[in-house]
TrEMBL record, chain A:
It catalyses: N(6)-[(R)-lipoyl]-L-lysyl-[protein] + 3-methyl-2-oxobutanoate + H(+) = N(6)-[(R)-S(8)-2-methylpropanoyldihydrolipoyl]-L-lysyl-[protein] + CO2. CDD domains: TPP_E1_PDC_ADC_BCADC. This is 2-oxoisovalerate dehydrogenase subunit alpha. The branched-chain alpha-keto dehydrogenase complex catalyzes the overall conversion of alpha-keto acids to acyl-CoA and CO(2). It contains multiple copies of three enzymatic components: branched-chain alpha-keto acid decarboxylase (E1), lipoamide acyltransferase (E2) and lipoamide dehydrogenase (E3). SUPFAM superfamilies: Thiamin diphosphate-binding fold (THDP-binding). Its EC number is 1.2.4.4.
UniProtKB/TrEMBL annotation, chain B:
Gene3D superfamilies: 3.40.50.920, 3.40.50.970. GO terms for molecular function: magnesium ion binding; oxidoreductase activity. Its cofactor is thiamine diphosphate. It comes from Orlajensenia flava. Residues 20-195 form the Transketolase-like pyrimidine-binding domain. This is Alpha-ketoacid dehydrogenase subunit beta. PANTHER family: PYRUVATE DEHYDROGENASE E1 COMPONENT BETA SUBUNIT, PYRUVATE DEHYDROGENASE E1 COMPONENT SUBUNIT BETA. SUPFAM superfamilies: Thiamin diphosphate-binding fold (THDP-binding), TK C-terminal domain-like. Keywords: Oxidoreductase, Thiamine pyrophosphate.
Length: 376, 340
């Protein structure tokens, strides 16, 4: 059987149709119970997450344009994939992001200004994962984090922290990467190790169509979801612009992983509406018509239509917009207050234990820097 | 009987001395480290029931089981990358890279991830990962099995790089490396795996990063690490027959380098030769030669000379003895320094 990467005949889990109607397709059947347990508050929360990060994303891009950030990595268009999967994880789970999952960090309790500190170039890391919902640091070497996630999941097994039969306690790992990173050796080695050790882990691949300027067809001639089977890992493709599909399928596979049934692979079909980063210019390599096509499938508009159909009052959406604007204004204010570290941070934390050569170099550096102060 | 019970009956810590080959001294050191700390686990290719291609992990799988001795899939980047994840979880992985020339698939995970993870986390985590690398020539093997890639790692901030030359050092240094909270590249001189030496299980070990004078002399200082130390001692014997007194320094640590004994020796002899199996261009030996020149300029009677592998790929084994620095090539350099 042949299928191109974007062949829509490949089963793709969808519960919310692009027009906002609730219409689970055949592939979605087994996941319906996960959606049925969602309360109206849960759905409002999904919407609030998505609308807030959309507004934040725009503010961050503006900050970059105004010289406040070295770079920004937009998430516009991928909110449903990220919010659904992010909300599916339990508090005890561990999240290994790539570098575009800002809203997953928010969901885990991270102050997004900490992300801006990284993109402003005042820190390499930005936050303490254990104090921020086990949301690990961003990883800028593509797919490097997939192996860290798998090793961490092996550690959960060795610790007996998973598959005890208590879903309130059992821990699992979610790792995010993308269609570009799927070509990296590390992504494939991670799948080999995960299958071999049957790690409690979900690989969440956001196929946003583009690796900077190169279309996904260059990465794979077959649907990426098929790779799961090749590694002996159960896999599902989902409509990545359907927050309910993202939530339900991730929740299911995390439950399975926590129960000791090994890893899973999810390919979320979505689209990077914005540029790869603020240094990119998508008009040089992609068609406006493709973009328009995807904008029509906007994940936030889709959820809003659905919620309106369920009778959620219009004032709710106005309130969310207002909150998001306040949030963005607060982020902007605090982003402008970010200050750089002292220069001697250069030498901090390179080693855990004494290192005479570096200590000597640091002493020289400090004396050299101090010589300017004396001159003044 | 459970695994734990078997272990409880095993002698917990050897005492006295024992005559062991260097490879088996490492085995004993690994075993001791695993007994001392149950977060220590071994990862690598064929290290389980086989005991590794050099049998350095022999018996450890039987004693400690599947979750302490992991026969991993055959993927070096995967091994190092998952070890990083395990270290994040509180484990102390000890990786065996099967041969020096096979470390490069893991180069990215070692240099862009392992080496920087602590700095990236602003000190919030440590990476107590040891990467054991059987390295160097003299075993007559095929391509990628005889190389000396130490410089790539010594160049990388965040890593520590050590190399034992004797069974006693091997036994102690592997345990010190495992106890270190920093990542350590542990280069094992594979041509020295089999010759035996005394291991003293009771003696206070030399610090991991200390260099050491292993033979005193007055005319020329020769400096090296790993298997090269044996060649240097051989050269010193030959020179003594001709009336030249050579002092030999075993570096033991390539990052950081302990320059104290090196400079003390050079201040006495005024002449230094640095020897290594690795190609000389941009090598550890180059760095040491430059530092001696910087710090001991007025004490030197002659330029610091280097004796290295040639700046070529490691050649076919049939001609490796022409490539690898021999005692004679070391003495040729010694003679040149004495001619100044």
């Amino acid at each position: 059987m042949a299928a191109s990467e974007n062949d829509l005949s490949v089963p793709t889990v969808q519960l919310l149709a692009p027009d906002g109607s609730y219409a689970p397709n055949a592939a979605a059947e087994q996941f319906v119970p996960y959606v049925e347990r969602l309360t109206e508050d849960d759905l409002r929360r999904f919407y609030r997450d998505m609308a807030t990060v959309r507004r934040f994303d725009r503010e961050a891009a503006n900050l970059q344009r105004q010289g406040q950030l070295a770079l920004w990595v937009p998430s516009h268009g991928q909110e449903a994939a990220q919010v659904g999967s992010g909300r599916a994880a339990r508090p005890q789970d561990h999240i290994f992001p790539s570098y575009r999952e800002h809203v997953v960090g928010m969901i885990r309790g991270l102050d997004v200004v900490d992300i801006l500190r990284v993109l402003k170039g005042v820190t390499m890391g930005g936050w303490v994962p254990e104090e921020n919902g086990n949301f690990r640091l961003y990883s800028f070497v593509l797919a490097s984090q997939t192996l860290h996630a798998t090793g961490y999941a092996m550690g959960l097994q060795f610790d007996g922290a998973t598959a005890t039969g208590d879903p309130e306690r059992d821990e699992a790992v979610v790792v995010y990467y993308g269609d570009g990173a799927s070509s990296q050796g590390d992504a494939n080695e991670a799948l080999v190790f995960a299958a071999s050790y049957q790690t409690p882990q979900v690989f969440f691949l956001q196929n946003n169509g583009w690796a900077i300027s190169v279309p996904v067809e260059r990465q794979s001639r077959t649907p990426l979801v098929w790779r799961g089977a090749g590694f002996g890992i159960r896999a599902d493709r989902i409509d990545g612009n359907d927050v309910l599909a993202s939530y339900a399928v991730t929740a299911h596979h995390l439950d399975e992983a926590r129960a000791g049934h090994g890893p899973a692979f999810i390919e979320a079909m979505t689209y990077r509406v914005g540029a790869h980063t603020t240094a990119d210019d998508p008009t040089k390599y992609r068609l406006d018509t493709d973009l328009e096509d995807w904008v029509r499938r906007d994940p936030i508009a889709r959820l809003r239509t659905y919620l309106e159909g369920r009778g959620i009052e219009g004032s709710f959406f106005d309130e969310v917009d207002e909150e998001a604007a306040d949030f963005a204004a607060d982020v902007r204010r605090r982003a402008l207050e970010i200050v750089g570290p002292d220069p001697d941070v250069i030498f901090d934390n390179v080693y855990a234990e004494a290192h005479p050569a570096l200590a000597e170099e640091r002493a020289w550096f400090e004396a050299y820097e101090a010589s300017f102060e004396e001159a003044e | 009987m459970t695994d734990t019970a078997i272990r409880a009956e095993a002698p917990s810590r050897p005492s006295g001395t024992s005559i062991l080959p260097l490879g088996k001294a490492i085995t004993a050191g690994l075993r001791q480290a695993m007994l001392d700390d149950d977060k220590v686990l071994l990862m690598g290719e064929d290290i389980g029931p086989l005991g590794g291609v050099f049998r350095v992990t022999e018996g450890l799988h039987a004693e400690f089981g599947d979750q302490r001795v992991l026969d991993t899939p055959l993927a070096e980047s995967g091994i190092v990358g998952t070890a990083i994840g395990l270290a994040m979880r509180g484990y102390r992985p000890v990786i065996e890279i099967q041969f020096d020339g096979f470390i490069f698939p893991a180069f990215d995970q070692i240099t862009t991830q392992l080496a920087r993870m602590r700095a990236r986390h602003e000190g919030g985590i440590s990476m107590p990962v040891v990467i054991r690398v059987p390295y160097g020539g003299h075993i007559g093997s095929i391509e990628h099995h005889q190389e000396s890639p130490e410089a790539y790692f010594a160049h990388t901030p965040g890593l520590r790089v050590v190399s034992p030359a004797t069974p006693n050092d091997a036994y102690w240094m592997i345990q010190q490396a495992i106890r270190s909270d920093d990542p350590v590249l542990f280069f094992e001189p594979k041509s020295r795996y089999w010759p035996k030496g005394t291991v003293d299980f009771d003696a206070e070990p030399t610090p991991l990063h200390a260099s050491r004078v292993v033979r005193t002399g007055t005319d020329v200082t020769v400096i090296g690490h790993g298997a090269m130390v044996t060649t240097l001692l051989e050269a010193a014997d030959l020179a003594a027959d001709e009336g030249t007194s050579i002092e030999v320094v075993d570096l033991r640590s390539l990052s950081p380098v302990d320059y104290g004994p090196v400079l003390a020796s050079v201040s006495k002899t005024g002449r230094a030769v640095v020897a290594q199996e690795a190609s000389g261009f941009v090598s550890v030996g180059s760095e040491i030669a430059a530092t001696i020149a910087e710090r001991a300029f007025y004490l030197l009677q002659a330029p610091v000379l280097r004796v290295s592998g040639y700046d070529t790929p490691f050649p076919p084994a049939a001609v490796e003895t022409h490539f690898l620095p021999s005692a004679d090539r070391v003495l040729e350099a010694v003679d040149r320094t004495l001619a100044y």
